[in-house]
Amino acid sequence: MSESLSQQFPRVLLPAEQIQQRVQEMAKQIARDFEGKTVYLVSVMENSFMFMADLVRQMDVPVVCQFVTGVFTESTPSTTEIFYTPEVDVHGQHVLLVEAVIQSGHTSDFLMRNLMGRGAASVKLAVLLDKQASRRISLQPDYFGFLMNENFVVGYGLGNPHLGRNLPYIAAKAATSGNG
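The chain above was modelled as a monomer; its predicted structure follows.
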């Protein structure tokens, strides 16, 4: 018999109720900031699908939901290219890029510049988990749920790499002892 997900990831870092409360607060702030406008939400799949779904259900402004998936190719040993499909039409629109986690900031920065290059009227960034300690470039999200230092988490859409996405909370593996 295999271990259940709750046994594999027993450390609950963010309970479901706390996540839902913060997402609701973020949605209200976003709705205030975009009052009178239609918001084009662009979600980076797969990690952010639950976050985006809960966020849009709480927003009291018109929204258009679009989704992109990253495809990474190594063109040389030291260069990785990132392509996002499908291409989204955001010309003249107010865009909110939605990501579950921001770490180095490279991907978010690339996507924000790409969306502006497609003629977006504005681009803002909303993230659930902000791993500021891992940031490699100067980029701050416009909206964030929680600061997080844990290296690897699952739940609320985040997976290992695919398992664990269905947990309603965010969890981590049990802490390991420092004895080897």
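Residues 103 and 134 are 5 Å apart (CA to CA).
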